[in-house]
Amino acid sequence: MAAMVRLLAVLAAGALAAQPDGKGGGEPVPEAEREENAKRIPCPFLAGLYQEGILKPDEYGRVNSQHMKEAMMAAGSTIPNAIFPSFGTVRFKEDDLHQTKRHWDYGLIPSGVIDDFGLEKDLSTLWLNIMTMNVPDKCIDAAGHAAMPSKFPCNANPQHVQHGYSTTIRDPRYDAEDPTRENRYKDWIEPTLVKNTTLNATERVMTFEGFTALLARMTVEGDLSGEWSLKPNFEYDGSNVQHYHPHISQVNAEALYHWGPWLAWVGLWEAYGYPYPDGSKEKYMTESDLRRFLLHGKLPLGWSPKPFTLEDVGYTMIALKGHQIPFGDLYSESLAKKFPLTSFLPKVLGTEWRYMRNYADNQRSLGFFLDNIVNPMPGPSALMV
Ligand SMILES: *[C@@H]1O[C@H](CO)[C@@H](O)[C@H](O)[C@H]1NC(C)=O
Ligand SMILES: *[C@@H]1O[C@H](CO)[C@@H](O)[C@H](O)[C@H]1NC(C)=O
């Protein structure tokens, strides 16, 4: 019953929210151009929303926080869960084209609460460029050049949106040797796929076992370009996380190594996994959906919005415990202590908001908010090298 009320609340909220109106964003460019631009977006989900014309960046490639939230809701997310990606990443003022100064602005929470009552209001004014999230988009000189030249402004801080660890499938640095990305897809995804005719008669699937094996392998062999990254072999000394988060203890840094990839991959899993036919809470993803996401940056064929909650994402992150993801249990155990709701308030009351608060509390307890170190534009001297 409680679940039903919650589902109805989610659906009602979805119906009230307007389609993203491009406020602060732009009109979608023609489809062929979108397909080309989407290759630049490392996150397959954002790439998919962009290709659908739902996420509409401005001429520089930027979206604002309200706009990001609306795009997530168009995919079926609850409002609090839709705020999440913005919360961590959409953090730069409109006039800061190169994303040199990160702001912690909480306007999105009040605007989300207002939205919950059906009144749309943008109380946050922060932006993120979704076209320059890759390592070679980094500004290499004061004149604004990037290692990989493009029509979009270079980014002083791509490490801010890179995860602690990631596959290399959508990393443009490997496109010269693997232009279709097929080799990287095969390397990373094929070993995780199994044939199970109970789940799908015609195509292979990724089950939770394959999913956790993929995450475990990423921690060891993945790319380590994020601000939360450890060095190879999980070394802390000289790592990005030590540099960007000097006030976090080593053990908490080892826990927070996981937060980004888990939130993103578990989000994808919860939004686009199919439930097992036996009615258990287990899910699986299909090979064709994974190919569309990772190779082509597209949402599943014939997709439609599906309710997608922070509650499910949180509990699946907790369920990653005990799956041999190196240092992963540090994070899942911490979340298991903070995430569940207290029993003092009935579960229907503001459930997703309460989960959001608890998730943030977990991040805070690990030291997430202690440091805010970003790179300014390279100084003029960099022009000389
Ligand atoms: C296929 O999936 C079902 C769950 O629907 C599971 O019970 C069964 O063990 C799986 N079969 C194989 C061969 O893994
Ligand atoms: C199973 O695979 C077929 C063929 O790719 C696809 O059309 C169908 O939607 C899949 N079913 C599920 C439940 O994933």
Task: Give the secondary structure arrangement, pairings included.
Elements: H1 2-16, H2 31-38, H3 44-51, E1 62-64, H4 65-74, H5 79-89, H6 108-116, E2 127-129, H7 182-189, E3 193-194, E4 205-206, H8 208-221, H9 240-244, H10 250-256, H11 259-272, E5 274-275, E6 283-286, H12 287-296, H13 310-318, H14 328-338, H15 351-365
Antiparallel strand pairs: 1-2, 3-4, 4-6, 5-6
Helix pairs in contact: 2-3, 3-12, 4-5, 5-6, 10-14, 11-13, 13-14, 14-15
Distance between the termini: 65 Å
**Main beta-sheet annotation:** 4 strands, antiparallel
Fraction of residues in helix: 40-55%
What is the succession of H and E elements? HHHEHHHEHEEHHHHEEHHHH
Q: How would you portray this structure in words?
A:
With 385 residues, the chain is mostly helical. The chain folds into two domains: 140 residues, no CATH class; 215 residues, no CATH class. Helices cover 40% and strands 4% of the residues. The protein is globular, with a radius of gyration of 20 Å. The N terminus is likely disordered. It binds 2-acetamido-2-deoxy-beta-D-glucopyranose (NAG) (2 copies). One 2-acetamido-2-deoxy-beta-D-glucopyranose (NAG) binds next to loops.
